Amino acid sequence: MTWAVPAIGLVLVTSLIIGVYGVRAARSTSDFLVASRRISPNWNALAIAGEYLSAASVLGLAGLLLKNGLGTMWYAVGFTAGYVAVVALVAGPMRRSGAFTVPDFAEYRLGAPRLRKLCGFVVLVIMLLYLVPQFKGAGVVLSLVSGTPYWVGVLLAGLVVSGSIAAGGMRSATYVQAFHYLIKLAFLAIPAIYLVVHAGADTRTEALHPEWETHFPQTTPVEFSVATDFTLNEPVTVLTPQGEELELPAGSHSVARGTEYVFPAGAPIPHPEDLPVLGSQRWSTPLLDVGGYPLFETWSTLLAITLGCMGLPHVIMRFHTSPTARTARRVAVGVIALLGLFYLFPTVYGLLGRVLTPHLVMLQGTDTVAVVLPAHAVPGSVGTLLTAMVAAGAFGAFLSTSSGLLLALAGGLSHDLFQGSVPRLRLAVVIGACVSVLLALPAQMIDINVLVVWAFTVAASTFCPLLVLGIWWRRLTLPGAATGLIVGGVTATGAVGWSILLPTPSGWVTVLLAQPAAWTVPLAFLTMMVVSRFTRPPEWAEHAVLRLHSP
Amino acid sequence: MSPRREKLTSPQTRIALARGNRPVQHLQPVPGPVDTEAARALFRAQRRTAVRTVVVLSVLLFGLSGSFALFPELGEIRLAQVPVSWLLLTVAVYPLLFGLALWHVRSTERLEGEAESVDRGRSTARGPSRRRVDRRRRSKGDSSTGGEAT
């Protein structure tokens, strides 16, 4: 772990240097704004991918794969497929509308400044839901590598990201974020390839055969940081901290917070309640199966992520840096290639993690698997170096995504909700960071991906119908759009919030609340269309639509 | 004219500052296209392409996940030790998504190219090409508010 802190520092310093150098380069041109639109499509695609690949992709996917099984990779497919929907439905027309943000587009298409406040509010909700898991991820990584408690890590992450925005590290956003994409790809791919090559044939074969059951690879001390219920399939003799032997019979057990057991090598992994048995049929079938309705859960999540991608405010904004609608679409295709390349690697950590670090499941710490795994797999300084690389890559993910999100959030606060001025924008960055840190503090036990998908679900139920209908349907009216935004936003935010924060009745209701996109997205579309049918679109509505589709 | 030194800020800051307290004017719809019928035809063609892509995407995503649910054997057949269903989900799907996006872009660019050549054919009779005017107007719009000036 000793090299991780300098590695993270290096990523941070290099980002700041590129930021400052990028600003100098831009000053030499006569007009910065025009220059910003002449960014080559390749750089632009790298930057978009760099901003998009967040802690959910770098840490969350591998962790959730280890915990819930192969179906997790549908998240990655959804994150990528989202850009296919963006190419097909919004990239070109959004560029032609001349709108920077979704609120801008709403105003262009429906001509009502008051809708902008509503949109600005939705932007706030989505951005906050997206920021909290980023801070959680950064907190987890920083506390792991520096040995401090989780809350110190989160606070530190808040300070670092606000500081780097204040120092101008994200000004030349395109180059910094392109650099971050390369960092994330290299620092996840190189350790992954090294681990696969050096794990040995036995480990590789075991990783591909989940049906051989999962055992502790070595004598493993486990300290339960929360009270845990787990089940054992066969009796296991563990050691207590006092050195006494304790036989745990087969069946269910409840351990109190702070309990410590040392499990012997070769003992089967106990599995916590509500989670699939590691390596079971449920784990290895590539469908999302948390509540018992795998196909529904997979489809609903796919809907949320694929459609939510086009409603993410910071994604939409980036297409404005393309000179034409044609380039905007091509850039989005480039992003798909870059994302597809990146998403080949998280699987490696999840699969090897089941063999080498299965105890993380009991600790509810699976989000850390990508950082913890290299040191377990390769002892000595190489392992330490690889851990440092993954930690730095994860930190890069956090830095670029959260900076982009904070800027979008601050822009939304000062631009759409209040009158803008620079001091207010700075204040908005600080407020956004503070709120995210405060919300991330109690979120240690919630999976990064659960929170990220929440943000995607809200985006899919609000901005996705607004953009799709606004671009492709000339009869959309202001009352229709406003009602649909409210209905979609309230149901999506409420349903997922309920399922995370409050106890839910079992069965179908749980699944419908945890994965609500399958009903909230159609509901939002339907509301917008029905209400629009009862109201009259303005006369220029058709021209506003046609202009979005003419070269 | 020497270039004015500008304070460099994020895009949102720039719009916010440029706009200040005034309502947005540059985003109001411009008068309609010269040839409404041609624009409508192009819109319909673009919509057909978009619907086609979304349908193929849905078939790919829902079909693949559906086949995992319907045929659990996909997890037992192995290719170089790796279960076929794992390969499909973690590797094979990405080239397919990329190909689909590329196909869509090719189709819409062909549609727009056809519409543009018709447009150009008409405007040469009228004098200066519309494209050049458009370009000049766009760069002017950029330096002030970031949108196309009305």
Concise overview:
Chain A has 551 residues and is mostly helical. Chain A has helices at residues 4-27, 32-37, 41-52, 55-68, 73-97, 102-110, 113-146, 150-166, 173-198, 201-208, 281-284, 294-311, 313-318, 325-342, 346-356, 369-377, 381-417, 422-440, 448-472, 478-501, 508-514, 517-533, 541-547; strands at residues 220-223, 228-232, 236-239, 245-248, 251-255, 260-263, 271-272.
What does this entry look like structurally?
The complex is a heterodimer of chains A (551) and B (150). Chain A is mainly α. Chain A is 68% helix and 5% strand. About 2% of the residues of chain A have low confidence. Chain A has a 3-stranded antiparallel beta sheet with strand order 5-2-7, with no helix packed on it. A two-stranded antiparallel ribbon of chain A has the order 1-6. In chain A, strands 3-4 form a two-stranded antiparallel sheet. Chain A contains 23 helices and 7 strands. Chain A folds into 2 domains: 337 residues, Sodium/glucose cotransporter (Up-down Bundle); 54 residues, no CATH class. With 150 residues, chain B is mainly α. Chain B has a domain of 91 residues. Helices cover 66% and strands 3% of the residues of chain B. Chain B is built from 4 helices and 2 strands. In chain B, strands 1-2 form a two-stranded antiparallel ribbon. In chain B, α2 runs antiparallel to α3. At the A-B interface, α1, α2, α5, α6 and α12 of A face α1, α2, β2, α3 and α4 of B.
**Number of E-type strands of chain B:** 2
SSE succession of chain B: HHEEHH
| CATH architecture assignment name of the largest domain in chain A | Up-down Bundle
Q: Main β-sheet of chain A: number of strands, strand sense, barrel status?
A: 3 strands, antiparallel
By DSSP (H or I, 4+ residues per run), the number of helices of chain A equals 23
Instruction: Say how many strands of chain A there are.
Output: 7
How many H/I helical runs of chain B?
4
Shape of chain A: globular
The helical percent of chain B reads 55-70%
Query: If strands are numbered along the chain, what order do they take across the biggest sheet of chain A?
Result: 5-2-7
Q: Please tell me the overall pLDDT of chain A.
A: 81
| CATH level 1 class label of the largest domain in chain A | Mainly Alpha
Cα radius of gyration of chain B in angstroms: 24 Å
Q: How would you name the oligomeric state of the polypeptide chains in this document?
A: heterodimer
**Terminal-residue CA separation of chain A:** 54 Å
Q: What is the alpha-carbon Rg of chain A in Å?
A: 24 Å
